[in-house]
Amino acid sequence: MIPAEGVIVDKLPNAVFRVRLNNTEHEVIAQLSGKIRKNSIRVLLGDRVTIEMSPYDLLKGPDLVLIQLKLPVVSGFTAIRRMRRCAALREVPIIAVSFNNPTANRNVALAAGCNAHIEDPIEFDLLDELIDRLLPGERLPLASILIQ
């Protein structure tokens, strides 16, 4: 793990925070864990914190994003637009998931920058086909990934 220092700039639900890393304009999403979470220690805006990131976080983004359109803090549509503005995520395939009004949600999701849309509950055969189409190449079958 790689340590990094920063300042809490935003509090999100479920012990999750936005942290601005020192000496940069970069912000990361961090969550409380370990003794801090176990002992219910409060973290406030402006607190200086040390976080740990895996080298994976620094070197590579996701291969694919599966995003629920109904999110607690911002709408999935807003999150998709923000991802598309980020250079590191611009080319990453995004599959939107929604459980109501599939036709309207599909159209808005595609307009926001998604590559595909599926309904919840998810039909895993359809998801497997979408992933094959968006990420050509060798990979484990979806069922194998979900079971591991």
Q: Describe it for me?
A:
This protein has 148 residues and is an alpha/beta fold. It has two domains: 2-59, Beta Barrel (OB fold (Dihydrolipoamide Acetyltransferase, E2P)), CATH 2.40.50; 65-147, Rossmann fold, CATH 3.40.50. 32% of the residues lie in helices and 28% in strands. It is built from six helices and seven strands. A four-stranded antiparallel beta sheet has the order 3-2-1-4. A three-stranded parallel beta sheet has the order 5-6-7, with helices on both faces. The longest helix has 11 residues, at 102-112. The radius of gyration is 18 Å and the shape is elongated. The model is unreliable at 144-148 (pLDDT under 50).
Helix and strand succession?
Answer: EEEHEHEHEHEHH
CATH architecture descriptor of the largest domain: 3-Layer(aba) Sandwich
**Order of strands across the biggest sheet?**
3-2-1-4
What's the number of structural domains? 2
C-alpha termini separation: 23 Å
Structural class: alpha/beta
- CATH superfamily placement of the largest domain: Response regulator
- Using the alpha-carbon principal axes, give the shape: elongated
Number of strands: 7
CATH class term of the largest domain: Alpha Beta
Unreliable sequence segments: 144-148
Number of helices: 6
Radius of gyration: 18 Å
What's the CATH topology label of the largest domain? Rossmann fold
Helix content bin: 25-40%
Q: Largest sheet, described in full?
A: 4 strands, antiparallel
Mean pLDDT: 84
Please state roughly what percent of the residues sit in beta strands, choosing from under 5%, 5-15%, 15-25%, 25-35%, 35-45% or over 45%. 25-35%
